[in-house]
Amino acid sequence: MSERRRDGAALWLGRLRGYLWPGAPGLRAVYRKEMADHINSSRFMILAAIVAIAGLAAIYVAALNIRAEVRRTAETGFIFLRLFTASGGSLPPFTSFVGFLGPLVGLALGFDAINGERARGTLSRLVAQPIYRDSVINGKFLAGIAIIAMMIFSLGLIVAGMGLSLIGIPPTAEEALRILCYRPY
Amino acid sequence: MTGNREHVIRTENLTKRYGQLVAVKDLNLEIARGEVFGLLGPNGAGKTTTILMLLGLTEPTAGSVRVLGRDPAREALAVKARVGYLPEDVGFYEHLTGRQNLMYTADLNGLDPAEATRRVERLLGQVGLSEVADKRVEQYSHGMRQRLGLADVLVKDPEIIILDEPTQGIDPEGAEELLALIRDLSRNRGMTVLISSHLLDQMQRICDRVAIFVRGEVVAEGPIETLGRQVMRGEPLIVEVEVAGPDDVDEAARSLAGLPEVQAVDRSGENLLLVRCSADVREHIASHLIQRGFSLRHLRLRGYELSDIYMRYFRGGEGHV
Fold first, then answer.
1. B49-82: buried (b, 16+ CB within 10 Å) or exposed (e) per residue?
2. What is the distance in angstroms between the Cα of A90 and the nearest Cα belonging to chain B?
3. Nearest to B108 among A26, A40, A120 (CB)
4. Are B52 and B224 in contact (CB under 8 A)?
5. Is it true that domain B237-303 has CATH number 3.30.70.100?
6. How far apart are CA A20 and CA A132, in angstroms?
7. pLDDT tens-digit profile of A116-139?
8. Between chains, do A128 and B110 touch, taking CB under 8 Å as contact?
9. Mutate to test the interface with A, among B70, B80, B108 (most CBs of A within 10 A)
C-alpha cells in the first residue's frame, strides 16, 4: 500500500516536473537556439551598442555635473546612486534611458519571433516535432528576457565602474545593494 | 508480408470543412505498415489538409483519425514523436549550417547529444550532404534543401514518414535521387511512407498503392495496376496494331473493321493502327491479319496508364481552386 502510494507520488512528481521548466519537451532546446541566434545576430549587436552608448553618455554627463547636483539638492547621501538617477541637464539620467530602451530592445528582438519562422517555412517543421506549442513561444520569450537581463546587468556594471573612476567615491554597501535590487526590475 | 497487416494509419469518414468549402469529404484510408502510399491529385484537392489532420495540426470537422492507434488531435506529442513530416516548401534556418539545423531537430526530439551527433552524421551521409554539412543553408540548392529535409524527417527515427510534394521544383535527376532514397527507406528499413504529389509518373514508380484525390474526395484507390480497370470500367479497350508496309495499312484497317467486337479503327502516325474494341480480341486480330497475309509487327493492348485516369479526372478538377 505504502509502496503503491510512493509510486503514485513519484509519477505525479514526474508529471509536474514535465510541465515545469527543465523538462517541458522542447522548451530548453528552443531557449538555447534562440539565445544563440540573438547573440550571433547583427540586430542584437546594433541594439546593444545603442543602449551602451546611451548609458555611457548618461553616466559621463551625470559624473561631470554631480558636484552641482549635490550642492543644489543639499543632500549628501547616496552620491554614487545619483550617478544613475541624476540628469546632467542635457541628457536624461541612466535609469530613464534603460527604462525606455529596455522594452524597446525587447520589442525589436521579439516582434518577428513567430512570424519569422512562418515566413522562412520553418514553423511547420517546428510544430511537427514532439514538443508543446507553448514551448516554442515560451522558449523564445525566455531567451529574449534572458538576453536583455544580461545586457542591462553587464551595462550596469560597466557604467558603475566608469562612474567610480570618474567621481572617485565608492558606493556604500547600501548603495551597492540598492543597485542590485534595481537591476532585475 | 501477410494479408493481415497492421494498419498504422486509418481514417473513417474523415471530413474537413472551411466554411462552405469542403476540403476533405468522407475519407476512408487504411495504410499498412511498410507500405508506400501515394496521395495523388491536383493542387487544392485536399491532400495537404488530409496530412495536417493526420498530424493533429488541424482538427477534423467530422470523422476519426488513428495514427499508430492514437488520435493525433488528442495525443499529438505521442504521434509526432513517431511520425516524421516534410512539409511542402520546407524551410531551414538560413544562417545555420545543415548540420546545425539537424542538430536542432535532434535537440527538439530530446536526443542526447552523443546519439544526436552520431545520427546526424549518418543521415547526412545517407542523403549525400556530408561534404556541405558545415556550409550555411543559404548556400544550398533546392535539391540539397529537399534532401536535407528528408534527413531532418529521419532524425527522430520515425515509423511513418509523411512527405508533402517532396519532388516539387527539383530537376529530374535530383528527384530521381530523392525517390531512390525514399524507396530504399521503405524496402530496407520497413518504414511506412505517405507521399502526396501531383506528379503521377513519379508516384507510379515508387508507390505500392495510390489514392486519387479530386475535390476532397477519393475517386480511386488501390495498387496502380488495378486502378486502371477500376476507373475505366465500361470504357472501350484500345489495341495497337502495326503492320509492315505503309500500303498495307489502309487495307488492314478496312479488314479489321469488320471483326466482331471492333468498334472503330483509327490510323495513328505512319504504320500504327488503333483498334477500339469492346473486349480483348487480340488473338482474333492476330490470326485475322496473318491469315490475310499481312506481316504483323506489333500488337499491344494499351494498358490504362495512370495518366489516362489522371487526365480523365483532372480535366474535371480544373477550374476548381
1. bbbbbbbbbbebeebebbbbebebbeebebbbbb
2. 42
3. A26
4. no
5. yes
6. 12
7. 999 999 999 999 999 988 889 999
8. no
9. B108
Fold of B7-231: Rossmann fold (3.40.50)
Task: Specify whether the CB–CB gap between A42 and B94 falls below 8 A.
Answer: no
Q: Where are the domains of chain B?
A: 7-231, 237-303
Query: Are B9 and B66 within 8 A, CB to CB?
Result: yes
**CB nearest A130 (choices: B77, B92, B94):** B77
Cα dihedral across residues A83, A86, A90, A96: positive or negative? positive
> What letter does residue B163 receive in the DSSP assignment?
E
DSSP label of B136: B
B93-135 residue pLDDT tens? 999 999 999 999 999 999 999 999 999 999 999 999 999 999 9
* Strand ranges, E, within chain B: 7-18, 21-32, 36-40, 62-67, 83-86, 160-164, 192-197, 209-214, 217-223, 237-243, 262-268, 272-277, 296-301
**Which residue type sits at A142?**
L
- Write the CA distances from B11 to A127, B69, B159, B173, integer angstroms: 22, 11, 18, 35
Of the ranges A138-152, B151-165, B221-235, which one carries the lowest mean pLDDT score?
Answer: B221-235
Indicate the residue of A25, A124, A126 with minimum beta-carbon distance to B110. Answer: A25
Parallel, antiparallel or unpaired: strands B209-214 and B192-197: unpaired
Query: Which residues of A are less than 8 Å from B93 in CB distance?
Result: 37, 120, 122
d(CA B1, CA B58): 33
Check CB contact of B80 with chain A, cutoff 8 Å. Answer: yes
Nearest C-alpha of chain B: how many angstroms from A33? 7
Distance of CA A69 to the CA centre of its chain: 29
Chain A (48-107) residues lying within 8 Å, Cβ to Cβ, of chain B: none
Cell match 514551448: residue?
A135
- Cell readout for A156 is 550596469
